[in-house]
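ok, trying the design again with the full structure, not the truncated one.
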């Protein structure tokens, strides 16, 4: 049977991601792995996390990495927009990890981010769908087809999505909103279990809806 493994918010916790990948052991040619975004900022090793994800994409036939709101904040920062918002939301930790040290100020330019990482981040999709579900970082707007969803809903949705009982046709698998344990309802599965806040890094295995955490 073909499985899909969806991984919640990593936030620079590279070591936890390594342990989780070693535990779930997807089949490289058959299974699909989806990382639901927010793999940078706040945690200690955003650089190592990005490099690990890029290596996994080279190893696995179906390894997808989605954009989260923290990746969008970095892209906005690089474009000269809302730079303080990125820094205030864990962006300084990302910069520090790329520069190999600690600090409390941003460099004058953006040469700290390798061009190949910038291009990779800019190309990340905001959603993915297969036979097991619809995968997004934050949520979906009820009643709107996946092809018409706005980036704001995909990356920033919160309470209106969490409170809806709308049938999206398939379960919506999302991160963004941290829960103590995986949030499973009839129409959605939330798997951000607060890795960077002292919680666990979680993965849901579909179609069984099995939760695996480290």
């Amino acid at each position: 049977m073909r499985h899909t493994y969806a991984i919640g918010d990593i936030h620079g916790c590279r070591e936890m991601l390594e342990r989780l990948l070693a535990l779930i052991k997807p089949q490289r040619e058959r299974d699909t792995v989806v990382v639901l975004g927010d793999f940078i900022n706040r945690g200690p090793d955003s650089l190592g996390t990005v490099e690990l994800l890029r290596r996994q994409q080279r190893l696995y036939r179906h390894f997808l990495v989605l954009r989260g709101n923290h990746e969008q904040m970095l892209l906005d920062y690089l474009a000269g927009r809302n730079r303080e918002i990125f820094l205030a939301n864990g962006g300084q930790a990302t910069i520090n990890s790329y520069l190999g040290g600690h600090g409390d100020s941003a460099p004058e330019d953006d040469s700290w981010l390798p061009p190949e990482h910038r291009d990779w981040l800019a190309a990340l999709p905001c959603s993915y769908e297969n036979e097991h579900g619809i995968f997004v970082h934050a949520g979906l707007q009820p009643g709107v087809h996946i092809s018409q969803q706005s980036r704001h809903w995909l990356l920033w949705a919160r309470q209106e999505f969490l409170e809806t009982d709308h049938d999206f046709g398939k379960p919506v698998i999302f991160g963004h909103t941290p829960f103590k344990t995986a949030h499973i309802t009839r129409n959605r599965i939330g798997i951000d279990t607060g890795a960077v806040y002292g919680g666990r890094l979680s993965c849901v295995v579909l179609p069984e809806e099995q939760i695996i955490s480290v």
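Keeping the full-length input from now on. The mean pLDDT is 96.
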